[in-house]
Specification:
The protein is mainly α and 143 residues long. It is 79% helix and 0% strand.
């Protein structure tokens, strides 16, 4: 598992500078949520490309099956969908498209998780700030 140390460092909270921390959280949230949205579009495009290829591939597999087993004894009626899908894994182009789709899907998930982490950081900063204000009002904290 690889950890993006840059993001990890950005998610750390500097309690001595909560104003800055609070002011940048929304910008980072927007940046990563926007990146997630862009990746989601790319994922949808990759998924459509894969599905289009699968439809063509399924037709070719079924045609090959019919040609191969036409007139054979005992006659096999037709190829099942499960058998067709297993045949996909033998196709190099399908494997490439599937890997591409999964990689983009993974990036999309990562960006969404990072955006949510900045939202959580924002909430944490507000809670810390509230705690500091409470202590300051009670005379328990030197500001």
């Amino acid at each position: 598992m690889s950890v993006d140390t840059e993001v990890f460092d950005l998610l750390k909270i500097n309690e001595l500078d909560l104003e800055t921390e609070l002011s940048i959280c929304s910008a980072y949230y927007y940046f990563y949520a926007s990146a997630a949205s862009d990746n989601e579009l790319s994922h949808n495009e990759a998924e459509l490309e894969l599905e289009t290829y699968e439809a063509d591939l399924a037709r070719r597999i079924k045609d090959e099956f019919e040609t191969k087993y036409k007139g054979s004894k005992p006659a096999k009626k037709e190829i099942t969908e499960a058998e067709v899908k297993r045949e996909y894994r033998k196709d190099i182009r399908w494997l490439e498209l599937k890997k591409k789709e999964l990689k983009i899907q993974n990036e999309c998930k990562k960006m969404n998780i990072i955006a949510k982490a900045f939202d959580m950081k924002n909430l944490s900063c507000m809670a810390i700030n509230k705690r500091h204000l409470y202590k300051a009002n009670k005379g328990m904290l030197d500001i």
